[in-house]
What does this fold into?
Amino acid sequence: MNTTSSRPSVPPVPDPGRIVLLTTSHRVAPGLLSWPAWQALRSADRVLCADGAHPQLPYLREAGATVDESAPTAEELVDACAGGRTVVVVATGEGEPALTDGLARMAGSGRIAMPELELLPASYDLPGARLLDLVQVMDRIRRECPWSSRRTHEGLAKYAIEEAYELVEAIEAGDRDELREELGDVLLQVVFHARIAEEDPEAPFSVDDVAAGIVTKLIHRHPHVFGDETATTPEEVKEHWLRTKAIEKRRASVTDGVPLAQPGLALAAKLASRVHTAGLDVPLPQARGIGYELLALAVRAETEGVDPEAALRTAARAYRDAVRAAEGVDA
It folds into this structure.
């Protein structure tokens, strides 16, 4: 007689479902989400968001997504996914650390069948996106800080000079951390002045106007990059730059536009550079005095491709070290 052994049937393991943690960047216009993000939102069984003022919510609802304003615990979220359901959590600006920590603890216990967890970036920062943060921070400081709210272009001018010199010092020292910081300080001066300019009653402009102006200028002065002209050497690039600049400015003299308030050696070298580029033969003034001797040295340095300001700073630092050594002070 044939006998068939019977084994107890094993109940199917319930599908624990899926959690999609949707992250967005506040630096990208709300509603501009990736296609995978929209697919996840449309196919989800539930969409949750703890922040009722989240900038994405109006756009998600306009697109037909039902979003529940809810801040579930990790346990509640796991229960909501039971039976193979997909729950999308639209993350707040902080990224839901309490929720993700709770899910990690549950998964680490090994006693619970956890849903599949997917981190889905719905929008990404483009290069330069953090500049938007700087503009927003500067706007608030201008409105709320008792010191910054009273600054003028004239009152800030000296700081622009100081920060530029500190940037040069960081470059010459080769300190990468200092260089990054000083670049930020110089950038602050630009954004600060642009924010002040917005308040001018007669000729206001914003940081966007500043950026638009320099973008237009760069494109126009690089026809070998954005146009039909060609340039294969730095000399040809400089020729393009000077030619387009001359057309734009319509200057009567090669010395027009050279700031006379810059340091003396730099001024002398800049004038010599303009003369050299223009192919002019202009003899130096034949006069006595240390100023004319320095002028001759600056012109000679420019001819030899040496920045006289940088060369003098290097020599001055060596002199400073010699002084400290004579004093018995550590360098």
The mean pLDDT is 90.
